[in-house]
Design a protein that fits this description.
Largest sheet of chain C: none
Order of helices and strands of chain C: HHHHHHHHHHHHH
Strand content of chain A: 15-25%
Number of strands of chain C: 0
Shape of chain C: globular
Number of helices of chain C: 13
Shape of chain A: globular
Structural class of chain A: alpha/beta
Strand order of the largest sheet of chain A: 6-7-8-3-9-10-12-11
Chains: A alpha/beta, B alpha/beta, C mainly alpha
Structural class of chain C: mainly alpha
Number of helices of chain A: 12
Largest sheet of chain A: 8 strands, mixed
Radius of gyration of chain C: 23 Å
Distance between the termini of chain A: 61 Å
Number of strands of chain A: 12
Strand content of chain C: under 5%
Helix content of chain A: 25-40%
Oligomer: heterotrimer
Chain lengths: 358, 348, 302
Amino acid sequence: MPRKGEGATEQLEADQVLSVRGLSIVYATRRGPVQAVRDVSFDLRRGETLAIIGESGSGKTTMAVSLVRLSPRTARITKGHILYRKGDETIDVASLGDSDLREFRWSECAMVFQAALNSFNPVISIWEQFLDTGRAHGMMRTDDVRTRSGELLSLVNLDPGRVLGAYPHELSGGMKQRVLIALSLLLKPPIIILDEPTTALDILTQRAIIDLLRRLREQLGFSMIFISHDLSLAAELADRVITMYAGTVVERANVKDLFYRPRHPYSMGLLRAVPRVTGALGSVASIAGSPPDLIHLPEGCTYNPRCPFVIDECKLREPDLLAVDMPQHDARCIRWKHVAEMIGTDEAAVAEKMAAKA
Amino acid sequence: MTVVVSGDVTVQGEPLIELVGVTREFKTPGGAIKAVERVSLALGQSEAMCLVGESGCGKTTTGRLLAGLIRPTSGQLLFEGKDVWKAKGDELARFRRSVQLVHQDPYASLNPIRTVYQTLSAPLFRHHKARGRRAAVGVASELLQRVGLTPPADFLVKYPHQLSGGQRQRVSIARALSVDPRVIVADEAVSMVDVSIRISLLNLLLALRDEFRVTIVLITHDLAVARYFARRGRIGVMYLGRVVELGRSELVVGDPAHPYSAALVAAIPEADPTLTRSKERVELRSAEVPSLLRLPTGCAFHPRCPLFEEGLCDVKVPALLQIGEAREVACHVAVRERVPAAELLAAH
Amino acid sequence: MSVAAIARPTMRARITGPLASTADFLRLLSRKPLGMVGLAGVLFFVVLAFIVPIFVPYQDFVDVKAIYQPPSAAHPLGTDSSGRDVWNQIINGGRDILTVGLIAGFFSTLIAVTFGSLAAVVGGKLDALISGAADFWLTIPHIPIIVLLGSILKFNSIFVIAGFLALLAWAGLLRQVRAQVLSLKERDYVEAARSLDLGVFHIIFREILPNMRSYIVIHFILAMTAAIYGVAGLTILGLIPLSGQNWGLMLNFAYVRGALYFRDSLWYILSPVLAIVLFQLSLVWLASALEDIFNPRLRSSG
């Protein structure tokens, strides 16, 4: 029976299933402590899909992994809460003990790792993987695990007879990703977190995984958080999108607002940097410069060295998340109004709008 | 005289580099596979071309065949009209310099224990492009400036681990340029680089093409990158070791001639919610990708193809034939109807 | 920045570079107690064997009254069967053994690295030839060969012995070097070097081998230990007709003079044994610590 973590003085609303408040994570490295995640806050509602978009060094994976407390030992949560609503109670995942954590993981919140990155034990079969996972989280009867894994594999369009007896290296990338998704559903968790679910997969396989996730979400009704550098994935599946840069949230919005009406220069730059296949190419351009060194962050707003709209005030202090002209939409930028002027409110891609302006 | 498309203008002339009916076999534990089968590809000078396909399609092998890093099992590689593999020692080495490869992984493409200067100066000294250190520093600095790494002196002294992924790729490109190549094969050169700077690398390659009149072949699995890079050139689509479509990029992407290309274009997710959620999919008959060990008979795509015609597609291998101006496709149905597959599928 | 500064990376650049400078290296080593002990031990014995004898020459007087004395103030490790000071013999007895170890280790590493990398990079017939030779050599029983050659050749100089021991050890190391080089050869930057036509010499000595520095150093150390055991063992068994003083000979004399059967001669026997064993241990501990240090994951990043 999970106990309330200290600090969970707040109760979540009935339709809020997860709420991250002011989360900060520090990594100990040989060059000194690295602020991998700084003051990240967001909410997840029941049945909602949230996309966390960021590039290398943004802190997105560090943060996602910490939601299930699977961070390496060198990473520490220094501040903040991860509030989770279980039934009528609210618990703080950040302060759960080991046994409570084990109960939390997989039955409340399961994680789907990147299939390409050795997420399987190479010397045991897929069936043994299911059995181990089931047993580790309380499913004691082998028959139960067998029935359930058969169901789940069929659910993800795999043939249980063929896959259960196989070893990881015998499966293709797409098949492995499906198995990982099936594994995550073993205990019917209300929340699934996916880390780069379509990276390193072929186009047609990606499409199959995206359609699969959409279908599963409709059928089973879970909430989903996925982390990716791939904006198109967010465009396909997300209800809400968060962009992260240098360890913190720089923009939070509904999916259409983010893609058509971004208010942070980084989101805008990111959208302009991704060429489209169908539809007009528009004005496509890269973002100048490179991501910052997390040990030596720039003074003031961390994006200022690369920002086309930078003014002196930007270098003084890092802005808070400010509400912008759209509902439920925040941007960490003091010049968001300027961005709003450039982009307007039309429902069209940023690259196209910029081309029209040129 | 081969007609070669270059930019907006159709150029007539001899191709610079050409693969003629090239097949390359590999022995695997399961048996022999044909990574590339009877591929013919002609490239003109100053052309920007993209080879696209999913994993196992043979695009990387084709790139390495073009660069002379591996030898065809059958077929010819012609450079300036001459058979490369029949050339003797010196000429083969000279050819190898003329075609340079830029690798995918920025973390593996540079020797970690050599500075940028050491990496760039080695070919300069070896091929007498610079005599003495002063000259080498000068030429290396120029190269770095051309690839956008300024001020050069800052970068020359750095070791690879002190550079970002994008910067390392630029150094790789500079290294390739140091021997005055005629062709650069960029094998997934932007795939492992941050999304936000891919465009700048692609623009760099295109600018180099204009400035140095180098032919650039970009190999990628990302159709969006391919369309951007080759937007005034050609795209070649490969499937299971064969070229299935070859033509102007706007046409291949906008009105694909081969059902596989059509399926790819329809399947790719776009960074635009309304667009991507309303895209028409191309339903394939099967989701399974055949193994190269057991290629389907006839057209390799037939088990999955929505335009499949029994007795035709599973019997005869379709040849890459012209279906319009500067457009080739390897599909019996499309060629017979003289209509791109995309239009046939829409009517389906 | 001057041309010279660019062309030759400065010490500063090297310190931040992937190579550990002396300071960085010592700092990493200080985290490994066994490694520090190993380094201290190696230094101690090197000084003892090469430098101390300059000041403390061999005392060759026989004192019949002081046979097999236990340790005392005058004789820290006791005396031998002729009343000679054992400690003095230990001081003067290391030089030959360590020299042989060093030279044999160096030559076997040199042969293995040169031919192993050539075989891997050039491939084809040359590879078949070199690998075949190494495989053949590995199957030959060494002791009978030594005994045979011992009766034919003259093992009268350290260098001959060292060279000979090097010849015995090169084959195994060559196979390992070849395997390592074969894997490094597949790296993208090596392929780029081939494509740029930089030449076999450049590829081996400028691209591949420098990336194997740590590997080579560690193997050199281990080759040294093998050579030392080799020469000590052979000397003890009397198969090498070396004169002079060395630890192996001390044990040979002990064996020949029947010291093994006396209790009083314990120190005479133990001293050279301990000397050899402690030195070998130091080498092995140092090598093991070096292996950890050179692990890329521990390297300082830029």
